[in-house]
Amino acid sequence: MKIAFSRKRLRALQTWPKPPGGPHYTVCHFCDTLHESAPVPEGTAARCKCCGAVLYQNRPASLVRATAFSLAALILMVVVHSFPFLIMDAKPFYRTLNLAPATYALLTEGSPILGAALALFTIVAPIILAGGLVYVCLPLMFGHAAPGAVVVARWMNKTEPWNMIEVFLLGILVSLLKLNQLAEVSFGAGFWAFGALMLCMAAAVAGIDRDELWDRLEVAGK
Ligand SMILES: [Zn+2]
Prior knowledge:
By secondary structure, this protein is of the alpha+beta class. The chain has 2 domains: about 5-55, no CATH class; about 60-220, no CATH class. The chain has 8 helices and 7 strands, in the order αββββαββααααβαα. It has a 3-stranded antiparallel beta sheet. Strands 1-2 form a two-stranded antiparallel sheet. The chain has a two-stranded antiparallel sheet with strand order 3-4. α2 (about 60-80) runs antiparallel to α4 (about 110-140), α2 (about 60-80) runs antiparallel to α7 (about 190-205) and α4 crosses α5 (about 150-160). The protein starts with 6 loop residues before the first helix and ends with a helix. The protein binds zinc ion (ZN). Zinc ion binds near residues 30, 48, 50 and 53. The site of zinc ion (ZN) has 8 residues, from loops.
């Protein structure tokens, strides 16, 4: 027998699996009100009854989007480090600047603290975040939890605030105003890949709600 659902009813069915038992509760991060965490239809959000803040969201195609944008971010990281980031032409001197060698030069010759911060915020944190999302979300698409996925997810939560590629990009643009007085500066392929990487990282992190990720991990791990 074929059962036909209306579009509204179909959307209401697209909820992520909840761990067995319950009821489950969610605390509002703004006013500390305790709510029973009921499933919400895809594309909608649960809001606090007291202050109206968003408690959690059921984002459309969450696992696919988080995995796809994270994979794209990892590929873009290879492009960023394989091609020149900036090209400086101060005749007769011509120099190309790559991100990884520039970070290494800061670490060893110039300012080690600045070099370490640059490596952490623009290389290490994005790799942990994007790699972790692929490692956790890809097996979840097939209903499995990867070995150590809970530990990786915890590391992703810790790393997320340190992913500052957009701040670095802004800093580069500001410093270009100064550099332009000394040499003719143009952007290399690495720079444009870095801009695309910033967008992909933002889309990957926003792809899946944290509550959904933990619920799915708990269900798949049982
Ligand atoms: Zn609230």
